[in-house]
Design goal:
Layout (H helix, E strand, L loop, with lengths): L2 H16 L4 H18 L12 H27 L3 H4 L3 E6 L5 H13 L3 E6 L5 E6 L5 H19 L2
Antiparallel strand pairs: 1-3, 2-3
Helix pairs in contact: 1-2, 3-6, 5-6
Amino acid sequence: MNFALLTIVLALLWAALTGSFSGPNLLLGAVIALAALLLLRGRIGQPSGLRRVLPAVLLAVVFLYELLLSAIKVALVVMAPNLRAQLRPAIVAVPLTVKSDLEITLLANLITLTPGTLSIDVSDDKSVLYVHVLMLEDRAKLISGIAEGFEKRIMAVFA
């Protein structure tokens, strides 16, 4: 975030805290913000957390979408007259592109929180995640869905 934008944000914050969005008060907030930023410019680096906000929001949106979609699918299967005909359980080995323990843990938890799927184990070399699926339709589609959905978004958050 550049200094001009940060100055504007801090001036608006000043106005919100003082309760007055008048021109002189905004100008005073901008002057105070600019002075503070000039004094602290050596200590203010690139805020890495801010560039992770959008990817994190996109990950949350993808998760909520998958959560809703899979909850509906599981509810329809459970309410079906012939439950056994609907179930096609399987254990799928999903190759991993995420490598850190944090990324793998987040991926495994997102998969487990999604109805109809459960993360079982990670291989010793951290290259494969084993996932139990309640209703397997297409193994390749499941693997690409995880890779293009959760995994891609997780890598964007931690890039």
